[in-house]
Design a protein that fits this description.
With 305 residues, this protein is α/β, with parallel strands linked by helices. It folds into 2 domains: 13-104 and 211-304, 3-Layer(aba) Sandwich (Rossmann fold); 130-208, Orthogonal Bundle (DNA polymerase, domain 1), CATH 1.10.150. 43% of the residues lie in helices and 17% in strands. It is built from 13 helices and 10 strands. β1 (27-30), α2 and β2 (48-53) form a beta-alpha-beta unit. The chain is globular, with a radius of gyration of 20 Å. Bound molecules: S-adenosylmethionine (SAM). S-adenosylmethionine binds next to α2 and β2. The site of S-adenosylmethionine has 20 residues, from α2 and β2.
């Protein structure tokens, strides 16, 4: 697992364009607009893009770019089908999700995503939402915190960390990123190349932003929106989200089951897809060298049948 993903350079750019099979005049929904790195490339290849982001800052930045062929919508990608329909697109040629945190979000200490920069424990991608990471850390019961760290961070020391947090906050609530990061380090010690708070930060970010719920809704909505022969491309940075995407595509790809009386029958979830590459596409060594954050990126692609 890597530290939290973010970057200035769009990750797996060429691979993603190939995965989407971008066509001149085609319609594409980018459910994670960010700085529009991927969206601008789709436009450069002749496609039209509807870009969605839940972060006002990202929306303002991309609006200022004034890109012809790029429509912008503030919203959650969990509702991407509804957002596309309200923009007059009832089916599209491709959908892209490039999950995770953007560089501006990670680099701005005031957003509270980074365990390496002092800032408020916030982590909301959409700052109109009310629950911050500080609220979770200071107000959740020990069992709930343990569950968050285990389910969203796959943190092996979930119980120990949750209990220690609940004890410590009685004297002094957690307010900043470094306070929490240093505390977690004191509780579990430092082992291996990653900061010991990496998984705790990932878990809090995922819970604050309901990232798994959003992803599940985006997968359902995106697949319903893509036309037959259209492509769905998803880039993830954590094993948790990658597994979710892999499972979803596999369930819709289905399998042939042998029948007792001979022959076989397809079993799976509808609509049916074909998995374009059996193995997730990963960044080449050159890309990892120039953009270390691409190291943990995995691209999965399915085509609707
Ligand atoms: C890794 S960045 C995308 C970068 C973009 N592909 C680029 O090349 O500039 C992820 C973006 O998705 C947005 N995002 C994450 N979850 C979202 C959700 N559920 N709904 C809408 N936007 C979301 C974040 O705010 C962030 O700006």
């Amino acid at each position: 697992m890597d530290t939290m993903p973010a970057r200035h350079v769009p990750v797996l750019l060429r691979e993603t364009m190939a995965a989407l099979n971008v066509k001149r005049g085609g319609r594409y929904v980018d459910g994670t607009l960010g700085r529009a790195g991927h969206a601008k490339e789709i436009v450069a290849l002749g496609g039209m893009v509807l870009g969605i982001d839940r972060d006002d800052q990202a929306i303002a930045e991309v609006e200022a770019m004034k890109v012809d062929g790029l429509k912008i919508a503030k919203g959650n990608h969990g509702e991407l089908k509804e957002i596309a329909e309200s923009n007059g697109w009832s089916e599209v040629d491709g959908v892209l999700l490039d999950l995770g945190v953007s560089s501006p979000q990670l680099d701005d200490a005031g957003r509270g995503f980074s365990f390496q920069r002092e800032g408020p424990l916030d982590m909301r991608m959409d700052r109109s939402r009310s629950v911050t990471a500080a609220a979770l850390v200071n107000e959740s019961g020990a069992d709930h915190l343990e569950e968050i760290f285990r389910n969203f961070g796959e943190e092996p020391n979930a119980r120990r960390i949750a209990r220690a947090i609940v004890e410590r906050r009685v004297e002094k609530p957690f307010e900043t990123t470094l306070d929490l990061a240093d505390f977690v380090e004191r509780v579990v010690g430092r082992r291996g190349p990653h900061h010991p708070a990496t998984r705790v930060f990932q878990a809090l970010r995922m819970d604050v932003n309901d990232e798994l719920g959003e992803l599940r809704r985006a997968l359902e909505g995106g697949l319903a929106l893509v036309k037959r022969g259209g492509r769905f491309a998803v880039i993830t940075f954590e094993s948790l989200t990658d597994r979710e995407v892999k499972r979803f595509f596999a369930a819709h790809a289905g399998r042939e089951v042998s029948l007792q009386g001979g022959g076989s029958e397809w079993r799976g979830e509808l609509p049916r897809v074909k998995i374009v590459a059996r193995k997730a596409v990963k960044a080449k060594p050159e890309e990892v060298e120039s953009n270390p954050r691409s190291r943990s990126a995995k691209l999965r692609v399915a085509e609707k049948e």
